[in-house]
């Protein structure tokens, strides 16, 4: 009998791609999502991609994990063998401006989910954490046993939030909460996946990242400039101590990331005592912002043109060379954003050993699939404006 999996936040970018992989591998999937940063159209496209027969194994419920009644109604109607927990906000910049919103969504929602899971004896959890927990690492690549120093509220809701309360501090760790749950009840099996920078899209071009408003992440920002929705790409920080002055990240194809979640889920169903542990999902390679822009230009056909003009002045006996660079994706350099690290990429050894998982796709495939999604869906899941 197929295992039944609850996917919180399953209508989102990473969630939909993971649901496709789960369904294609024979799992029954139920999505709960409040559509705060996603649309139900994405779920319809998941059904189309997997086909009529397989799509019968997919259920969608509009609900909010912060609402215990929503979760209890769901758990009372079906027995779930495991949960993949994606639900939460994720924009670093926004988390600096609206920290309480992040504490509410990412912290309170998770605690409520864990309580209901315990009540209904569902004790297998894949938690979608983040490389943000590493903050500004003292050395790279990032290894899972590093001391965690998240630099912004998004990261702190993944690791801790420190709240003043009458001279006392309430120290809440989302990852530590998971460990405490397992310590108190060893029947729990929990894998904490610290993924790096997900990009790309489904190869069909039917699923992709469709943020609301101006994108917070690099690749959807680039694609919106490429299709003409935004005038230029804002590059935050060009004075980092890196090879081209821009920040370096470990970009991972969303399909590789989805497969990593499936691999973690399968680990939970093994008879061995999985316990509770953290695992990185990344490629182990760092790529700068400008390198990513160049790769996307190549994939989309929007390539830099470099022209050189020579001006000879015989009277002064000198040659003046003027270089002109016409960028198809115009760039505006901006100051660094608070909370952004200089260089972050993963150590992937543990994922290879524990999950038998390794990223398969490189930057070229990421940009190819991202552009395919953008080309087919210049306005994302929305209809283009009529005016």
- Cα end-to-end separation: 52 Å
Q: Kindly state the number of beta strands.
A: 17
Classification by helices and strands: alpha/beta
CA-based shape: globular
Largest sheet, in brief, is: 7 strands, parallel
Helix content: 25-40%
What radius of gyration results from the CA coordinates?
22 Å
Main-sheet strand order equals 3-2-1-4-5-8-13
- Uncertain spans: 160-172, 304-326
- Provide mean pLDDT, rounded: 87
Q: What string gives the helices and strands in order?
A: EHEHHEHEHHEHEEHEEHEEEHEEHEEEHH
Quaternary state of the chains: single chain
Q: How many alpha or pi helices?
A: 13
Give a structural overview.
This protein is an alpha/beta fold. 36% of the residues lie in helices and 22% in strands. It is built from 13 helices and 17 strands. The strands form six sheets. Strands 3-2-1-4-5-8-13 form a seven-stranded parallel sheet, sandwiched between helices. Helix 6 (99-119) packs parallel to helix 7, helix 9 (218-226) runs parallel beside helix 11 (289-300) and helix 11 crosses helix 13 (363-376). The termini are far apart. Residues 160-172 and 304-326 have low confidence and may be disordered.
Précis, in short:
This protein is an alpha/beta fold and 387 residues long. The protein is built from 13 helices and 17 strands.
């Amino acid at each position: 009998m197929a295992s039944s999996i609850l996917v919180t936040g399953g209508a989102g970018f990473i969630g939909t791609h993971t649901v496709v992989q789960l369904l294609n591998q024979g799992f029954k999937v139920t999505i709960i999502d409040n559509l705060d940063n996603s649309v139900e159209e994405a779920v319809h496209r998941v059904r189309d991609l997997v086909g009529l027969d397989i799509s019968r194994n997919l259920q969608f419920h509009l609900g909010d994990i912060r609402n215990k009644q929503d979760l209890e109604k769901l758990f009372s109607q079906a027995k779930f063998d495991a949960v993949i927990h994606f639900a939460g906000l994720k924009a670093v910049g926004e988390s600096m401006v609206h920290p309480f919103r992040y504490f509410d969504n990412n912290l309170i929602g998770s605690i409520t989910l864990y309580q209901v899971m315990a009540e209904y004896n569902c004790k297998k959890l894949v938690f979608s954490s983040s490389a943000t927990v590493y903050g500004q690492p003292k050395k790279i690549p990032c290894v899972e046993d590093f001391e965690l120093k998240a630099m912004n509220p998004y990261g702190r809701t993944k690791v801790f939030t420190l709240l003043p309360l009458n001279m006392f501090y309430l120290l809440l760790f989302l990852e530590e909460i998971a460990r405490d749950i397992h310590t108190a009840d060893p029947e729990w099996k929990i894998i904490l996946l610290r993924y790096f920078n997900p990009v790309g899209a489904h190869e069909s071009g039917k699923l992709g990242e469709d943020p609301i408003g101006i994108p917070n992440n690099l690749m959807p920002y680039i694609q919106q400039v490429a299709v003409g929705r935004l005038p230029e790409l804002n590059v935050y920080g060009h004075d980092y101590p890196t090879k081209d002055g821009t920040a370096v990240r470990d970009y991972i194809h969303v399909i590789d990331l989805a497969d990593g979640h499936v691999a973690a889920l399968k680990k939970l169903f093994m008879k061995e005592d999985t316990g509770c542990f953290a695992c990185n999902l990344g490629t182990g390679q760092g790529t700068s912002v400008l390198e990513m822009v160049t790769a996307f230009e190549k994939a989309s056909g929007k390539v830099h043109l470099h022209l050189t003009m020579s001006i000879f002045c015989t009277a002064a006996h000198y040659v003046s060379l003027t270089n002109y660079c016409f960028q198809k994706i115009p760039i505006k350099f901006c100051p660094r954003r608070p909370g952004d690290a200089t260089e972050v990429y993963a150590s992937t050894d543990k994922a290879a050993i524990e999950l038998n998982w390794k990223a398969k796709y490189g930057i070229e495939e990421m940009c190819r699939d991202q552009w395919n999604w953008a080309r087919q869906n210049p306005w994302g899941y929305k209809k283009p404006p009529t005016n």
